[in-house]
Amino acid sequence: MEHAKWPNTGQVDWQADPYWRNRLVSPALIQVHDVRLEHKQSDVGVKLEMREVLPSTLLPSLEHRERLSKSLRVGDLSESRVEQNRLQALAAEYGWLNCLRSNDVQKSVNDPLGARKCRWIHVSSKFTNDLAGYLLGLSDWSENSLETLGALRQLDHCVSQNERFSKHGRYFAPFVQDLLEGYPEMAASEEGKRPLFISVPFMDWSVEGLTPPLRFRVDSRAWEQNQSNKVPTHPLRSIMQHFYRLEDTEDREPQQVFTRHKPWLTDRDLDLRVRQWYGHYPRRLAVDELWILVVDARHVVTFSSNQSWKAQWPPLQLSARISDVSFRGIRNGFLSTAPAEQDYTAYTHVITALSGALGMLHRSFWPDITLCLTDRYAGYLSHLQYRLHRSPSTRLVMDLLQVQEELNIVVQIMDQQIGLVTAVQELLRTCSSETSRRRPSVAYSDLTTSSRDFSIPGTTSFRYRRLSLTPFSTPAAQLLSTLQREHVDLVALRENSNALFNRTIQLVNIRLEDHGKAILVFTIVTIVFLPLSFVSSFFGMNFSDIRDMAATQEQFWKVAVGLTCGTVGAALLFAFYGRAVVDGVVEWREGIKRRGWRKGAIGRVDSWDEKIRAKKPVWNPLRKRR
């Protein structure tokens, strides 16, 4: 079959070729980045740089796109017919990804362009069916076919074990998994080539209502996921949908702190900065997932939701945040400038991707952020404290409960993030240590958040050398420390909200006590004047027997004062002794019932004894003698 030929320069129309038109994934739907050594400035020297590879430049490599599907011998890999058909289908659909693979590792600036330190592919969609396809397409089947097959099996098992279902869509429980776990025959594989799969939730901002239209990398399956629940995708969820998995949160979304707190309305400079940096007002807190698939030491794939309606600079998209902020921070802070000592593998990029995703809304990860997470909640708590000093009310109590609920969810998510980063650090440290006992899989809940030494598994030995004033020796330790610092700030905000809530309850109770005294005064006045009003109305009726009475005003006061005293006395009696009076009346009625039942029961017993005596024969001793 002949395919259309594209020009080597300019924009490529991928839909012009039927080969790409009918495929789920094409080069237009992914972002490819290469990490290479470059010599840009003489005063700086050789530095690691991350460059995005345009899809049009991949055309020469894609000429051999059917190489894997034709060369893969599924009959030699598995005896199961079902597994053979699945491998053949995956190779036919995702086999072109093998053209993006390169085994040449760059060691100096003079190496050819095909050599690189690491290749990172970012996918702006989260379909679980794509995971096996990317792992199959980017793996080296010429040398590690059995290991790749074992990793595919472990990946399917990992997805089925950690995928959860909710009213708002599917999601993964946070986990990190070594894809060669459970295969002891593959223990002799190189440490730097062990595949990993990681899933972690992270918080991001969004707009209220429908999001703006996407700009690029629009997957056709995104429309299908809204029409059918059978599409295996993990959608972007709000913070309420993340916590209330089985409940409808539509009526609770407008009560979010991000929705109700609008600091740009009272600060014109902030309003201008928000318009300049964001383009939209961030009025919704959402929870997304980051999937990291490490194929080997030189190839890594990340997955997240499509946020292409946001700007790439400032880096509001996840891919831009990873490449422009996290990568440069790790490179400038830890990687040595000596080319012989530099190395950047897929395992290094795991920490880079985690730093970019987990620090999306935190100022500690990027000081230039305009509205960070802690500022939004701190500003809203300041507004509630101002309302407390003016007029404490039950409405304020409900608003504080909403803030407490959201802060509890945010702290819970950060606890999961800290635990997972610690698990990743422990797993990579264990895999890279030749003397330690092998631990292929680590659960984040079984580890503490203490920092440990971390070394990157690779083909050559590598040690970090601190270039900045950071006190940490590894990027993983710095990531953990930054997360813990943000976690401490959010926990402090939660404690402040609890103290503010307790103080509001106290002030509301004091006000209710004052209101109770006022109501008591009004009640006494009403009880006193109610009989007087009744007597006045009674004597003022237009009847002949009342109108023609010969009595004087003295008769009115006698009746009015007597009725008033009786009403006030009865009210006080029922107010202070009403419960005792009611209990006494109830006990008296129950006593009458018990006495009546006893009399009836005794009468029935006496009548029954008389009947027995009447029927019982009289004993005659003479009958026995006869």
UniProtKB/TrEMBL annotation:
Q: Which residues cross the membrane?
A: 519-544, 556-577
The cross-references to InterPro entries, in alphabetical order and at most eight, read:
CorA_MIT (IPR050829), CorA_TM1_TM2 (IPR045863), MgTranspt_CorA/ZnTranspt_ZntB (IPR002523)
Enumerate the UniProt keywords alphabetically: Membrane, Transmembrane, Transmembrane helix
Record GO cellular component, one term? membrane
What is the membrane topology listed in the Swiss-Prot or TrEMBL record? Multi-pass membrane protein
A Gene Ontology MF term for this entry? metal ion transmembrane transporter activity
Query: Where in the cell is the protein located?
Result: Membrane
Q: Which SUPFAM superfamilies match?
A: Magnesium transport protein CorA, transmembrane region (SSF144083)
Under Gene3D superfamilies, the record lists: Magnesium transport protein CorA, transmembrane region
Q: Which Pfam families match?
A: CorA
Protein name as catalogued:
Cora-domain-containing protein
Q: Which organism is it from?
A: Sporormia fimetaria CBS 119925
